[in-house]
Task: structure prediction
Amino acid sequence: MSESAVSTVGHDELAALKFVALEGGRSEPVKISCSGLAERLNASSQTASRRLQRLEQAGHIERDVVADGQWVSLTESGEAALHREYSHYRRIFEGSDPSSVELEGTVTSGMGEGRHYISLSGYKEQFKERLGYEPFPGTLNVDLSEESIRSRSAMSSLSGIPIDGWEDDERTFGPATCYAATVSDGGDVAEPTHIIVPERTHHDETQLEIIAPVRLRDELDLADDDAVTVRVEAVE
Result:
């Protein structure tokens, strides 16, 4: 996503994004006509079309244009944009930010990459300084439920802990964000833990990578396919 694409998304485009979501585009593609959108936005059909184009350029929606309209659905980025708007309105009317998000899923085996990256000195020193602990060399991977995949974008409205990118003599390592969390198997609760979201990752939005000062599989006696609840907390 380019900076210029992001800059084209303003309040007018967010109004169009909200319309798509209200029509059901958050859960599945919905049929949208530019004339219908124009009527709702009190704008011309050409203007409505341009707003959808800008949302697509910014990565907030996916479109499939057909003869009598277009099928439109929100992306993870689009949901995150609406969640940010939602958090702003909560601050206006309730006087507070959303403080937590609850996600559910099942434990799964990872590819072993977490162990390598978490052990790198450029990350490890930042973890100790900013998280307050040195993580166990490995991540707990959680496949999210269908409902939690949709809810995951609410994490973007919570404050996280930045982990800076760095480089050595051979390559550059990208930045990441850590979100404070607790992990529960329905009985025992493990904390502190953090969801780590690298800027560049092989994992998609259906899975969480969680770090902690201990091996979470041992701490909670977890095996593949065990159900867990991950509560993500805002950092004060």
In short: Residues 83 and 154 are 6 Å apart (CA to CA). The mean pLDDT is 86.
